[in-house]
Design a protein that fits this description.
This is DUF2878 domain-containing protein. Keywords: Membrane, Transmembrane, Transmembrane helix. It comes from Lysobacter auxotrophicus. This protein is mainly alpha-helical. It has one domain. The protein is 69% helix and 3% strand. A two-stranded antiparallel ribbon has the order 1-2. Helix 1 packs antiparallel against helix 4, helix 2 runs parallel beside helix 4 and helix 5 crosses helix 6. The longest helix has 27 residues. It is globular. It starts with a helix and ends in a 14-residue tail after the last helix.
């Protein structure tokens, strides 16, 4: 039941963010995502891991969406003047809170595939609702697929390492090849 509530809560945060941005009220999405993150964190038995994942996701979101915006491939509504709108960054944080809850079953390969398909689909949906514009839709979709595949895989690996369910890569231990 908790996994379903986590999944449903993220979906509500996504809709609030996208519709809010499309209608000139991006703050609604920031508020919805913040509330989702806070509620999930309060009920979490893995608060330190969740905080680490949110921080990593925020950084990845700023880099990926910032690059796509700077390249001119995506135009975001509701964040005029900002390199990355707050509602997009907040969505990245909310997504991170699914990785130890409703998406806790993900393994790196499945995460890569989910990101490659789900990331672009979410942005295409947001474009249809008016929250973003994919200026060069082919390049933007390819970049989103690659970026989200890598980001979802990285976040899944961070979660698995922190839980002790994946081996630490040799370079992370200070060893050499």
């Amino acid at each position: 039941m908790r996994s379903f509530a986590n999944f449903a809560g993220f979906q509500l945060a996504w809709w609030a963010s996208v519709l809010g941005a499309a209608r000139g009220a991006a703050w609604i999405g920031v508020l919805a995502c913040s509330a989702f993150v806070a509620l999930q964190w309060i009920g979490s038995s893995q608060r330190r891991l969740d905080a680490r994942l949110v921080a990593c996701a925020l950084l990845l979101g700023i880099v990926l969406d910032g690059a796509l915006g700077q390249l001119g491939w995506i135009v975001y509504r509701g964040g005029e003047g900002a390199p990355v709108p707050a509602w997009i960054v907040a969505l990245w944080g909310a997504f991170a809170m699914t990785l130890t809850h409703s998406l806790g079953w993900l393994r790196p390969g499945a995460a890569f595939l989910l990101g490659a398909i789900g990331g672009p689909l979410a942005y295409l949906g947001a474009a249809r609702l008016g929250a973003v514009e994919l200026v060069d839709s082919t390049q933007a979709t390819i970049a989103l697929a690659i970026g989200w595949a890598v980001a979802t895989c990285v976040l899944t690996l961070v979660a698995r390492h922190a839980r002790g369910t994946a081996p630490v890569p040799p370079l992370a231990m200070g060893g050499s090849r």
